[in-house]
From TrEMBL:
<keyword id="KW-0418">Kinase</keyword>
<feature type="binding site">
    <location>
        <begin position="77"/>
        <end position="78"/>
    </location>
    <ligand>
        <name>ATP</name>
    </ligand>
</feature>
<dbReference type="InterPro" id="IPR012828">
    <property type="entry name" value="PFKA_ATP_prok"/>
</dbReference>
<feature type="active site" description="Proton acceptor">
    <location>
        <position position="133"/>
    </location>
</feature>
<feature type="binding site" description="in other chain">
    <location>
        <position position="228"/>
    </location>
    <ligand>
        <name>substrate</name>
    </ligand>
</feature>
<feature type="binding site">
    <location>
        <position position="108"/>
    </location>
    <ligand>
        <name>Mg(2+)</name>
    </ligand>
</feature>
<feature type="binding site">
    <location>
        <position position="16"/>
    </location>
    <ligand>
        <name>ATP</name>
    </ligand>
</feature>
<keyword id="KW-0479">Metal-binding</keyword>
<dbReference type="GO" id="GO:0003872">
    <property type="term" value="F:6-phosphofructokinase activity"/>
</dbReference>
<comment type="function">
    <text>Catalyzes the phosphorylation of D-fructose 6-phosphate to fructose 1,6-bisphosphate by ATP, the first committing step of glycolysis.</text>
</comment>
<dbReference type="InterPro" id="IPR015912">
    <property type="entry name" value="Phosphofructokinase_CS"/>
</dbReference>
<feature type="binding site" description="in other chain">
    <location>
        <begin position="219"/>
        <end position="221"/>
    </location>
    <ligand>
        <name>ADP</name>
    </ligand>
</feature>
<comment type="pathway">
    <text>Carbohydrate degradation; glycolysis; D-glyceraldehyde 3-phosphate and glycerone phosphate from D-glucose: step 3/4.</text>
</comment>
<feature type="binding site">
    <location>
        <begin position="107"/>
        <end position="110"/>
    </location>
    <ligand>
        <name>ATP</name>
    </ligand>
</feature>
<dbReference type="InterPro" id="IPR022953">
    <property type="entry name" value="ATP_PFK"/>
</dbReference>
<keyword id="KW-0021">Allosteric enzyme</keyword>
<keyword id="KW-0067">ATP-binding</keyword>
Length: 328
C-alpha cells in the first residue's frame, strides 16, 4: 500500500500481559522519536481508547521500563470494543488526539481488534505478538513466551526437590490457553515423566503404563506437565483419574497459573521485543498496514493479521517426539 503520512502513533497493550511488553512499548516509542514522530500511550488497551485514557508520551515515561514485567500502559479485555458503537467511540477519541496510526501489542484477540479497526476506519495499524502462549503464526516466538517457559521451569525445579524428597507424583498445570507450547518446553526442560497437551491425545491408560514402567526403572519421583485447555481436563482432574488406577501413589497437584505471566523479561524476550518495536514503526512508515511484525529465522517478517491469527500454529512434531523419547 502507498504509505500515508504518519505524524502521531498511538501504542497500546491489550489482552493478557506478557513479560517484554514494556520493552516493546519502549522500542516503539524510541523508534518513533528517532523518526521525529509524536507518540501517544493508550492506557488499558481498547477500553482506554473508548474511555479516552490517551496521553502523549515523553522520554521520561519509558525510562527504566525495559527490564520490568507487566505493562506500564496496563491492559484489559474490552467487551465494548467488540461492538460497532464501542469502536466508533474509540475512533472518535483517536481523531480528537490526531492519532493517525496504531501499534497494538497483544495476542490474537488484540490483533483482531487492530484488523477490524483498519477495515472499518482505515487507521494504519500494525500488531506485535505479545502473549506468553506463543500461539500466533508469523513469528517463531511471541514476546513473553521465553520468559514464561523459564519461570515455569524454575518453579518445576523447586517442585522436583520436594517430589524427590517424598517420592511423590506431581501433576503441574501450565498456561497456554489451548496451545501446548509452554507445556512442551517445560516438559523437555524439566525432565518430565510425561507432557499432556491439548493438540495430542494421551489416553489415561498409556499414562498409567508409563508411570508403572518408570517405577520399575526405580524412578522415585515423577512430574507430569499438563497444559491447561486439554479435552481430558486440567491437572486436578487427571490426577483424580490416575489416583483411581494407582491408589498407592502419593499424588499432588500444582497449578502454576499467573506467576507465569510476571517477572522481568529474559534476554531473549528483551531483544525480540526491541527488534519488533522498531519493526512496527518502520513498517508503518513503509505502508505495511493490517500486518503483524514477527521474527522468523532471525529475520523480521510482516504477516497479514488475518493469517497470523487464523493459521493454526502447531507445536513442533519434533519437539513432541523429543519430549516423548526423553520421558520413557
Ligand atoms: O493468553 C495468556 C493467558 O495467560 C493464557 O495462557 C490463559 O489461559 C489466560 O491468559 C488467562 O487469562 P486471565 O488472566 O484473563 O485469567
Amino acid at each position: 500500500m502507498e504509505p500515508k503520512t504518519i505524524k502521531r502513533i498511538g501504542v497500546l497493550t491489550s489482552g493478557g500481559d506478557a513479560p517484554g511488553m514494556n520493552a516493546a512499548i519502549r522500542a516503539v516509542v524510541r523508534a518513533g522519536f528517532y523518526y521525529n514522530l509524536e507518540m501517544y500511550g493508550i492506557y488499558r488497551g481498547y477500553e482506554g481508547m473508548i474511555n479516552d485514557e490517551i496521553k502523549k508520551l515523553e522520554t521520561k515515561n519509558i525510562a527504566h521500563v525495559l527490564e520490568r514485567g507487566g505493562t506500564f500502559l496496563k491492559s484489559a479485555r474490552s467487551a465494548e470494543f467488540r461492538t460497532p458503537e464501542g469502536r466508533q467511540k474509540a475512533y472518535d477519541n483517536l481523531q480528537k488526539h490526531g492519532i493517525d496510526a496504531l501499534v497494538v501489542i497483544g495476542g490474537d484477540g488484540s490483533l483482531t481488534g487492530a484488523h477490524l479497526f483498519f477495515q472499518e476506519f482505515g487507521i494504519p495499524a500494525i500488531g506485535l505478538p505479545g502473549t506468553i502462549d506463543n500461539d500466533l503464526s508469523g513469528t517463531d516466538s511471541t514476546i513473553g513466551f521465553d520468559t514464561a517457559c523459564n519461570t515455569a521451569i524454575q518453579a518445576i525445579d523447586k517442585i522436583r526437590d520436594t517430589a524427590t524428597s517424598h517420592d511423590r507424583l506431581f501433576f503441574v498445570e501450565v498456561m497456554g490457553r489451548d496451545a501446548g507450547f509452554i507445556a512442551i518446553n517445560a516438559g523437555i526442560g524439566s525432565a518430565a515423566a510425561a507432557t499432556l497437551i491439548p493438540e495430542k491425545k494421551m489416553p489415561i491408560e498409556r499414562l498409567v503404563e508409563r508411570l508403572k514402567a518408570r517405577k520399575k526403572a526405580m524412578k522415585q519421583s515423577n512430574i507430569v506437565i499438563v497444559a491447561e485447555g486439554g479435552k481430558s481436563g486440567g491437572a486436578a482432574e487427571i490426577a483424580d483419574k490416575i489416583k483411581k488406577q494407582l491408589p498407592s501413589y502419593d499424588i499432588k497437584v500444582t497449578i502454576l497459573g499467573h506467576l507465569q505471566r510476571g517477572g522481568s523479561p529474559s534476554s531473549f524476550d528483551r531483544v525480540l521485543a526491541s527488534k519488533l518495536g522498531v519493526a512496527a514503526v518502520e513498517g508503518l512508515m513503509q505502508g505495511k498496514y493490517d500486518v503483524m511484525a514477527g521474527v522468523i529465522n532471525n529475520k523480521i517478517v510482516y504477516t497479514p493479521i488475518t493469517k497470523a491469527i487464523v493459521d493454526d500454529k502447531e507445536v513442533d512434531e519434533d519437539d513432541f517426539r523429543i519430549a516423548k523419547i526423553l520421558s520413557t
